[in-house]
Design goal:
Blueprint (H helix, E strand, L loop, with lengths): L10 E3 L7 E5 L4 E6 L4 E7 L9 E4 L5 E5 L6 E4 L5 E5 L5 E7 L3 E6 L4 E5 L5 E5 L4 E4 L4 E6 L2 E6 L9 E2 L4 E7 L3 E8 L2 E8 L4 E8 L1 E9 L4 E8 L5 E6 L5 E7 L4 E5 L4 E6 L2 E6 L5 E3 L4
Antiparallel strand pairs: 1-2, 2-3, 3-4, 5-6, 6-7, 7-8, 9-10, 10-11, 11-12, 13-14, 14-15, 15-16, 17-18, 18-19, 19-20, 21-22, 22-23, 23-24, 25-26, 26-27, 27-28
Length: about 290
């Protein structure tokens, strides 16, 4: 499948440690794969992906596999980059979230059933996480788990490493990690909140933006700040801000509208999609590079 001149992207998927491949999802079915090293589009796939949730993941090890899910009858499927469907798991419906994990695994979150961990290459079930509704991969060694009203840090094996911390909002949307802190984005009624916690789970700061959604967050190691892309929920105008570990906003600038983001290159870059294409944002100098669509 070739990529047409214009395709609206609503979902970007990659693991934070990936250096090359990124997947983007259109409103339904079509998934495109991009190469950061080659600077452009690699291939397009027809999948079971449908609208809603975060039902797309790209697991790059040991071999690249695109994992896509659906809310209704199709369940979750794994695809090779040539579009061949490697496996399909239809034992459960209402797939809500997919997350690429280290070790060639993928976490599958459902609307009302325990989260499953599958082998991304075969679809084999490896573990079941009762009470967990959201899994965020922070790096190869650590993850963030969330359930109804709580969150906690876990290791690569998804074993909790600190106690549960109450949520400030009603759901965890994304998160990013630094050597001594973790930034967690939560949805709340009519807006969003960015929370900074120490690596042992102690809350450090909280910044609330009523009427705005946080599209992405990453860490600039050089300045020691969090780079946050925010979007007004009504006008869709976006701004980019830098936030310290203490919650102070130290930089603010207008930004292009963003529909989806994913951290890559060990958290040093943020891939973002908008109506004009797919772009790579360097979190240190805020330089933006557009990936070629053909």
């Amino acid at each position: 499948m070739t990529r047409p001149a214009h395709r609206r992207v609503w979902r970007v998927a990659a693991a934070p440690w990936d250096d090359d491949l990124v997947a983007t999802g259109s409103w339904e079915r079509t998934v495109d794969v991009w190469s950061l090293s080659r600077g452009g589009h690699v291939t397009g796939l027809d999948t079971v992906l449908d609208a809603g949730g975060t039902r797309l993941a790209l697991v790059s090890e040991p071999e690249p596999v695109v994992v896509a899910g659906a809310w209704t009858r199709h369940g979750v499927c794994g695809y090779a980059l040539d579009g061949f469907r490697i496996w399909q798991n239809r034992t459960r419906r209402n797939v809500q979230q997919l997350t690429a994990l280290s070790g060639g695994r993928v976490a599958v979150g459902y609307a009302s059933q325990p989260t499953l961990v599958l082998d991304a290459g075969t679809g084999q079930e490896l573990a079941s996480l009762r009470g967990v509704t959201t899994v965020v991969a922070l790096d190869r060694r650590s993850t963030l788990l969330a359930g109804t009203g709580w969150l906690q840090m876990a290791d690569a094996d998804l074993t909790p490493v600190w106690r549960r911390v109450p949520l400030a909002g009603f759901a965890v949307l994304t998160a990013a990690v630094a050597p001594e802190t973790v930034a967690v984005v939560e949805a709340e009624e009519g807006g969003s909140v960015l929370r900074v916690l120490d690596r042992d789970g102690v809350p450090r700061a909280s910044v609330t933006w009523p009427g705005e959604g946080i599209r992405g967050v990453g860490r600039d190691a050089a300045s020691g700040t969090w780079v946050v892309v925010r979007s007004d929920l009504d006008s869709h105008r976006s701004v980019l801000v830098r936030v310290t570990d203490d919650g102070a906003v130290v930089d603010r600038r207008p930004w292009r509208p963003v529909s989806g983001t994913a951290l890559v290159r060990d958290g040093r870059a943020l891939v973002q999609a908008d109506d004009d294409g797919v772009h790579v944002l360097d979190l240190a100098d805020l330089g933006l590079r557009t990936l070629a669509s053909d």
